[in-house]
């Protein structure tokens, strides 16, 4: 028997496990090589794996089909392959699904070498309509596809095409593999304060040491954490190694890019879902060859094939949005730490309000805690005051208490900026019929339809279902009987407009800031002083630095405490601390007013008294005594089907076959928090176990024995965020 060269391949778009192939003569592959393999009549991309790490059905040499292509891209490296295995294992996800995140999209490997982009020429067209003038003003200095320029300028594609014909915009061919400009570590380093210098020195040493070293960088908002971790980035640059900076939202990318450019001379490489294919391809290739030195991105940037990663930073590390809730349900903060471990590099988790899990890791000495005391320079932390909504209620049909109204009035007179925070998009969270009480519910979800008055529609925030606001009540046919219940940001903006018709306001939510370009526009309007009052959701609570913003009003501090899950108090505290952190970041002091019905609630009194440590200590104790994370472990099992009885029966079967294990309890099944989502009925079981148990193994075993109907989906959420 001759020796056939074989390769074990994980196929990306297939539910099948790894398959063996013959490597044709002349093709060289190694573990990590990205290949194209035949599967039935199809040709599918896959990655070669070490045969001894993944079991498969043994197939004789003579039955092997040959691989078709090996891509001209660096093979995925060992540490990344181990990370992919770990993630699949820990989060009970198919290996191929995790692997897909590393390859991002196959367009990174194939496709055209150049792309046509457009940019203004500086020529003013003969016929300058108001739309053309607006477009030219807004696309100054930009370059992109026609569509992107049109979006940035808020005009139709036709307007941009017209400008091309008129010579005011020109086409340029861009090489898709053009190298990214290199950041300069010595471009504009700040003079650090002594405590910043000490912190930076620790990070710089860790980058040089090339060993796994997890840090918690803990300091109030505005304490200068970013400047400190920038020193670590500078060191990685000097060493010629790559840095990954993870941010929780793509809306934060744009201000970060600008700030990075001010420090390092050029923008870093951005990675997020807003990139188009050609940008993705360029970034992916530069990351895999090591040419892209600093990458800033949302959680998906975590699995990219860095050629020589030297440092990871997770900024705003406490953020909920690092938890992925769709597809592979992983926590990017935790996977980032694992990646740092496997790559043997330092990682910095930066936060003003670290999660209890993270604080606990610092407490037991696994993470090294580096603290920055106080704000940088002359800036002081703002004073937080509670407004008791029972003692000082707003006028009927209004939401801002008289005290807050006076403060805003004052602030307007002083020419300073105000931020009103309410974590609710749209006009009102609930719409009902005044006559019969009918409430508008989403047909696909257990959720109310939310009125968005600006867009003239009702929308479901869970599945995206929209409908025009009906004039007739569908139940009792009464005309114009619909009333809005409760406030959303749009309603607060209405109240502001009624109180101060001359004030310039902006609503900041994912409806209005849906792209990095929109975020950039908002930032520059704030900086130019063109906005007096911002009304916004959690989107405005983090990252931004506006020196003239001196007043923050939290419209409803009790909102986050509803629902009452175990993290409610912690999340509420973090959110209000973060939004308070927007106030008084420059020389002018900031003030924060928190409207509440429960001024004595522990969260509120901790915020007002500034007793951060006391609050955390009480929360941590409560978790410890209930053996809740991080002192115990949880996993959710969500069973869903379009058919209600199929979902409930399968969930019941899973519940009945639960193994009896000491120090482990299974609760449910019960309807999941969103009992219906996107047309699927959802039941949930909750596993609560001691830390010492290998919950994943137990669940794998348990679910592996159950056959469920084809229409049923079972998803396991390991370390769920909400429960
Ligand atoms: P954090 O990341 O902790 O919120 P930042 O790093 O954004 O804090 O710092 C807050 C503000 O202070 C920023 O405008 C930043 O540029 C400025 N700053 C921080 N440290 C320095 C320094 N050493 N020299 C000059 N400016 C600094
Ligand atoms: Zn819905």
From TrEMBL:
Protein name: Replication restart protein PriA
SUPFAM superfamilies found in the cross-reference section: P-loop containing nucleoside triphosphate hydrolases
Cofactor(s) recorded in Swiss-Prot or TrEMBL: Zn(2+)
Originating organism: Allosphingosinicella flava
Keyword Lyase: no
GO CC terms, sorted: primosome complex
Superkingdom classification of source: Bacteria
Binding residues annotated for Zn(2+) 2, in chain numbering: 442, 445, 460, 463
Record bears the keyword Repressor: no
Keywords: ATP-binding, DNA replication, DNA-binding, Helicase, Hydrolase, Isomerase, Metal-binding, Nucleotide-binding, Primosome, Zinc
Subunit description: Component of the replication restart primosome.
Name of the encoding gene: priA
Protein role: Initiates the restart of stalled replication forks, which reloads the replicative helicase on sites other than the origin of replication. Recognizes and binds to abandoned replication forks and remodels them to uncover a helicase loading site. Promotes assembly of the primosome at these replication forks.
Residue ranges occupied by any Helicase ATP-binding domain in the UniProt entry: 206-372
UniProt xrefs under InterPro entries: DEAD/DEAH_box_helicase_dom, Helicase_ATP-bd, P-loop_NTPase, PriA, PriA_3primeBD, PriA_3primeBD_sf, PriA_C, PriA_CRR
Cofactor mode of binding and number, as noted: Binds 2 zinc ions per subunit.
One annotated GO molecular function: ATP binding
Protein family (similarity comment): Belongs to the helicase family. PriA subfamily.
């Amino acid at each position: 028997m001759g020796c056939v060269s074989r390769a074990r391949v994980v196929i990306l778009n297939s539910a099948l496990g790894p398959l063996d192939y013959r490597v044709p003569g002349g093709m060289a592959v190694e573990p990590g090589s990205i290949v194209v393999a035949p599967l039935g009549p199809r040709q599918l991309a896959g990655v070669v794996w070490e045969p001894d790490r993944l079991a498969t059905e043994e197939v004789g040499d003579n039955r092997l089909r040959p691989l078709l292509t090996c891509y001209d891209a660096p093979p995925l490296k060992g540490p990344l392959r181990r990370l992919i295995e770990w993630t699949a294992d820990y989060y009970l996800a198919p290996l191929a699904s995790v692997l897909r995140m590393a390859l991002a999209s196959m367009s990174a490997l194939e496709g055209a070498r150049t792309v046509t982009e457009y940019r203004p020429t500086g020529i003013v067209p003969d016929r300058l309509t108001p739309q053309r003038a607006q477009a030219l003003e807004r696309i100054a200095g930009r370059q992109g596809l026609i569509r992107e320029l049109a979006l940035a300028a808020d005009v139709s594609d036709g307007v941009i095409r017209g400008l091309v014909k008129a010579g005011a915009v020109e086409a340029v061919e861009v090489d898709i593999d053009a190298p990214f400009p290199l950041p300069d570590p010595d471009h504009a380093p700040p003079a650090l304060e002594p405590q910043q210098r000490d912190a930076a020195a620790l990070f710089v040493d860790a980058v040089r040491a090339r060993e796994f070293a997890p840090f918690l960088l803990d300091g109030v908002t505005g304490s200068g954490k970013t400047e400190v971790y920038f020193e670590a980035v500078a060191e990685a640059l000097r060493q010629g190694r790559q840095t990954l900076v993870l941010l929780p939202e793509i809306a934060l990318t744009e201000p970060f890019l600008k700030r990075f450019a001010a420090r390092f001379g050029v923008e870093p490489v951005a990675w997020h879902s807003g990139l188009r294919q050609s940008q993705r391809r360029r970034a992916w290739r530069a990351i895999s060859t090591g040419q892209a030195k600093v990458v800033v991105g949302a959680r998906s940037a975590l699995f990219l094939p860095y050629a020589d990663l030297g440092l990871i930073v997770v900024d705003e590390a406490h953020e909920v949005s690092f938890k992925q809730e769709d597809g592979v349900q992983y926590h990017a903060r935790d996977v980032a730490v694992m990646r740092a471990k496997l790559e043997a590099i330092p990682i910095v988790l930066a936060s003003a309000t670290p999660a209890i899990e993270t604080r606990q890791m610092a407490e037991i000495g696994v993470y090294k805690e580096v603290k920055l005391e106080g704000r940088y320079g002359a800036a002081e932390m703002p004073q937080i005051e509670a407004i008791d909504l029972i003692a000082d209620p707003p006028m009927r049909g209004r939401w801002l208490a008289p005290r807050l109204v006076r403060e805003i009035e004052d602030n307007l007179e002083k020419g300073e900026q105000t931020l009103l925070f309410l974590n609710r998009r749209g006009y009102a969270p609930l719409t009902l019929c005044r006559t019969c009480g009918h409430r508008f519910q989403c047909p696909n979800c257990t959720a109310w339809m939310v009125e968005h008055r600006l867009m003239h529609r009702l929308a479901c925030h869970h599945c995206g279902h929209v409908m025009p606001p009906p004039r007739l009540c569908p139940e009792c046919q009464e005309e114009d009987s619909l009333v809005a219940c409760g406030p959303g940001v749009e309603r607060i903006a209405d109240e502001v407009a009624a109180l101060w018709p001359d004030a310039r306001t902006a609503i900041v939510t994912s409806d209005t800031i849906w792209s990095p370009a929109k975020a950039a526009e908002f930032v520059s309007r704030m900086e130019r002083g063109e906005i007096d009052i911002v009304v916004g959701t959690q989107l405005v609570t983090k990252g931004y630095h506006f020196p003239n913003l001196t007043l923050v009003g939290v419209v409803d501090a009790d909102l986050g405490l509803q629902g009452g899950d175990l993290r409610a108090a912690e999340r509420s505290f973090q959110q209000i601390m973060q939004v308070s952190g927007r106030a008084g970041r420059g020389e002018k002091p900031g003030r924060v007013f928190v409207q509440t019905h429960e001024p004595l609630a522990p969260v509120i009194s901790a915020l007002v008294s500034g007793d951060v440590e006391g609050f955390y200590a009480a929360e941590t104790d409560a978790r410890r005594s209930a053996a809740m994370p991080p002192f115990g472990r949880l996993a959710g099992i969500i069973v869903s089907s379009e058919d209600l009885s199929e979902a409930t029966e399968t969930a019941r079967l899973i519940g009945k076959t639960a193994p009896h294990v000491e120090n482990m309890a299974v609760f449910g099944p019960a309807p999941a928090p969103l009992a219906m989502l996107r047309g699927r009925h959802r039941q949930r079981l909750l596993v609560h176990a001691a830390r010492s148990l290998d919950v994943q193994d137990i669940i794998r075993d348990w679910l592996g024995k159950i056959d469920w109907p084809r229409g049923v989906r079972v998803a396991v959420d390991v370390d769920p965020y909400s429960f």
